[in-house]
Amino acid sequence: MKQITKYVIATGIILTVIAVILLATVRIGNIGTIKTLGITSDTSQIDWGELAAGIGANVTINLKVDGSPANLTLATENWSPASAATYIHLTWDYVDGTVLQPNVWTPVTLILTVDDNITGITNFSFDIKIVAQG
């Protein structure tokens, strides 16, 4: 009888730990649309997959400058819900000031991070704006 009791208690503890882990993980669905000016992208929309608090995602896209050599800038806009921009951040591995030559495909990794303290957001979307300035 003591062995059964120990087994039931151990099982209860394990299930409690699993429940706490599942409750602490926030799953967030999303989509990102890429808008480009003076540049061509091989991707028009990114599905970042299912994200969790404190965990982000990386996606590599290819960009090609149209016209003359240019620098790139990155911005986000049209967040839905607007509060998502407080907890979710987009950066990239493009080095500011790097001049890209026209008609050459360049891989760039977009890096999406989700704050550990995100609350109240289960789905979000936003536009990624990449502009070539020459």
List keywords for this structure.
Immunoglobulin-like, 5-stranded mixed sheet, 4-stranded antiparallel sheet, 2 helices, alpha+beta, 134 residues
Q: TL;DR?
A:
By secondary structure, the protein is an alpha+beta fold. The chain has helices spanning 2-24, 84-87; strands spanning 27-37, 39-41, 45-46, 51-52, 57-65, 71-80, 88-92, 106-114, 123-133.
Would you write up a description of this structure?
The chain is of the alpha+beta class. It has helices at residues 2-24, 84-87, and strands at residues 27-37, 39-41, 45-46, 51-52, 57-65, 71-80, 88-92, 106-114, 123-133. It has a single domain (28-133), classed as Immunoglobulin-like (Sandwich), CATH 2.60.40. The termini are far apart. 16% of the residues are buried. The longest helix has 23 residues, at 2-24. Strands 1, 3, 4, 6 and 9 form a 5-stranded mixed sheet that branches. Strands 2-5-8-7 form a 4-stranded antiparallel sheet. Residues 4-26 have low confidence and may be disordered. The chain is elongated.
> How does the overall form come out from the CA principal axes?
elongated
Task: Look up the CATH topology.
Answer: Immunoglobulin-like
Determine and state the CATH class.
Mainly Beta
Mean pLDDT: 81
Number of domains: 1
Specify the number of helices.
Answer: 2
pLDDT under 50 segments (min length 5)? Answer: 4-26
Q: SSE order, as H and E?
A: HEEEEEEHEEE
Strand content: over 45%
- Please tell me the CATH architecture by its name: Sandwich
Going by helix content, strand content and strand pairing, the class is alpha+beta
Count of DSSP strands: 9
Biggest sheet features: 5 strands, mixed
How many angstroms separate the termini? 79 Å
Rg from alpha-carbon coordinates = 21 Å
